[in-house]
Amino acid sequence: MVSRQQRQETLTKNEKMRFNRQFRYVYLRIIRFRGHPNELALGMAFGIFMGMMPIIPFQTALALALAIAFRASKITAALGTWISNPVTIYIIYKYCYKIGSYILGYDHNTKILAPVIEAIHNGEVLNSIIKILSAEGMVMAAFLLGGIVLGILFAAPSYVIFLYFFKAFISWRKSRKVVKA
Fold it and tell me: Model's pTM, two decimal places?
């Protein structure tokens, strides 16, 4: 008869094996990225640009559309949108609004942002989108304009950084193949 502790240890080992297997799969998928470094870096830049936009449910779809239109990597475009995640979304939304309202000459110290920030703190990202859309037109314009500015500020240098990264990565992968052969 198997004790409860032995079953728990077996479950823990199985979970570790499952996690290791998933991690290995993701690692191999990344190692096997195909494409020219320019395509990969451009896809990442499009993803980061769309990740800065306050349009959470549509970020990946729009990043993929940009990647298809400009013949960039669709995988890296989808990965780039992960810049907006539960940890960073509060900061991104806050600065989208502040930058956009500053450019539009709108008072960014108003309490309009409070319900959006409260929804983000509660983990209700879709509710925050609804609150943005239900606010005044200037508030929505401030969020979008700030998102465009932040997107450009982060996407442009990320293209250059990831271009060098993918060049080095591809040359490392080629050198690894030579050593194995």
Answer: 0.74
